[in-house]
Specification:
Layout (H helix, E strand, L loop, with lengths): L8 E8 L5 H14 L7 E7 L6 H10 L2 E5 L1 H5 L10 H7 L4 H14 L3 E10 L2 E8 L1
Parallel strand pairs: 1-2, 2-3
Antiparallel strand pairs: 1-5, 4-5
Helix pairs in contact: 1-2
């Protein structure tokens, strides 16, 4: 039996505008992973804010990738404010937290690994979407 505890738990946090096409999210994901030489199969799950629970592109992306998509409330995400690379006033006005992608990635990595998480890919913005990747050992 191999010890999987050494492999970091990698998760992707996503934020997007309403009606963002799934192709935009996929392009952003593929771009970010390629730039950081992270194979797609190492991503354990996707995360976003609960306001996006019915966002078709997020659901479609999770389905395409065969990954679980988890949602967090703005209250759950707000605790990660100090760890964000970028604090968006617009995001705060719309969602109650200063960064959806980064906060969601941190929250999910921490939840899955039961250990502190850190941002491995800070907020990337592309068209109507943002992405961040967090890992926890």
């Amino acid at each position: 039996m191999t010890d999987v505890s050494t492999a970091p738990t990698l998760v992707v946090g996503l934020g997007c505008q309403r009606g963002c096409p799934v192709s935009t999210l996929r392009a952003l994901l593929d771009q970010a992973l390629a730039a950081h030489q992270i194979p797609l199969h190492e991503i354990k799950a996707l995360a976003s804010i609960d306001l996006k629970r019915d966002e078709p592109a997020l659901i479609e992306l999770a389905t395409q990738l065969g990954l679980e998509l988890m949602y967090f409330s703005s209250e759950q995400l707000a605790v990660y404010e100090a760890q964000l690379s970028h604090q968006s006033q617009i995001a705060f006005e719309r969602t109650g937290c200063y960064g959806v992608a980064e906060s969601a990635a941190l929250a999910l990595a921490e939840q899955l690994a039961q250990a502190p998480a850190k941002l491995l890919i800070p907020r990337q913005k592309y068209a109507q979407a943002t992405l961040a990747l967090a890992g926890a050992a």
